[in-house]
Amino acid sequence: MKVTVQVVTRSDDGQESIREVASVECADLTPETLGLSLAEGKTILQAIQEVVVEWQMQAYVYLQRSQFELLNNPCVIYDGASPYSVEQKG
Q1: Considering just the CA atoms, what is the radius of gyration of the chain in Å?
Q2: Closest to 55 in 3D by CA, of 8, 6, 4
Q3: What integer pLDDT is reported at residue 88 of this predicted model?
Q4: pTM higher than 0.90 for the full model?
Q5: How many degrees, rounded to 5, is the angle at CA 86 between CA 67 and CA 76?
Q6: Is 44 exposed, middle or buried (0-12, 13-18, 19+ CB in 10 A)?
């Protein structure tokens, strides 16, 4: 029997990414071999953590770049009556 563990990440815009993080094979099914061993569980958890942290870092970097671009470009402020352009001076 083979069990495959996958992590599916889905961004806010609907992009989906599937990554296989672990595969466990069990040839002999006995009461002693049921479930995961502690080592297998730790290995799977580590692989999941790596995917989650990578995904979070990519999202964070994207957000920081977006904010940087907004701060370094002219922006339009709307006061409810008329929009006007304000340039950031550096």
Answers
A1: 24
A2: 8
A3: 47
A4: no
A5: 65
A6: middle
What does the alpha-carbon distance between residue 84 and residue 44 come to, in Å, rounded to a whole number? 54
Question: Domain containing 39: what range?
Answer: 2-86
Q: What does the alpha-carbon distance between residue 58 and residue 38 come to, in Å, rounded to a whole number?
A: 30
Q: How many domains does the chain have?
A: 1
CA of 47: how far to CAs of 29, 37, 44, 76, in Å?
A: 25, 16, 5, 44
**What's the CA gap between 55 and 62, in Å, rounded?**
11
pLDDT of residue 43: 93
The pLDDT value recorded for residue 44 is 93
pLDDT below 70 — which residues of the chain?
69-90
Q: Which residue blocks in the chain are alpha helix, DSSP H?
A: 38-71
